[in-house]
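Sample entry (227 residues):
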Amino acid sequence: MCSSDLAPAPMPAAPAFELPKGGKEERMKALRAVVEACAETRKHLAAGQRPLLGRGSLDAQVAFVGEAPSAEEMAAGEAFAGPAGELLQKILAAAELAPADCYLVPVMTWRPEPPTQYGKRPPTARELAFNLPYLRAQLDVVAPRVVVALGAQAFEALHGRSPTITQARGQWFDLGGVPLLATYHPNYLLHNASATAKRTVWEDFLLLLERLGRPVSARQRGYFAAG
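Predicted structure, serialized as tokens:
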């Protein structure tokens, strides 16, 4: 379970809105206006911060959904900023997935406030539910062929608390007609850099490549495999 039991103030109902018809850039711009006008979202932003939406190609074949934003991401104003993002870029390069293939999006538009001034708190189920319409709207605009849930927070938001990410990784699920693949977040590899852990995540990316119909070289298939 990734949601904290240290629930802060009660959350309002999830926002309901409808994006205008039009091109992807126009619709994403309209979504940003909706999010930036959201009173609940603004309550969780520090001075000078903007809600964090995704980045990447609006014509992406794959949308990678990550954790709630970190302090570093909020300061940079960019999803997947920092070491986890750098590691993800290395994995994407090894998989030969170009920037034009990918849309990277956090599961929430703000960083969950920690219970103290130190530490990192995972989002509560209510925080995930409130932000889900904003996440789903981005996925609807991009309309990727595949969605990848990176870690427990993303998988819980998109699929539910069961099964756990350990049980779900490497498996395909249905997200409203779009294939959803669960795997570990790059942060997992930053804390567990063993060859076994790397191979586990890489096997999930091989499944992704196969689903996309991409050729997989013998060299790629052998990354981190036991000798």
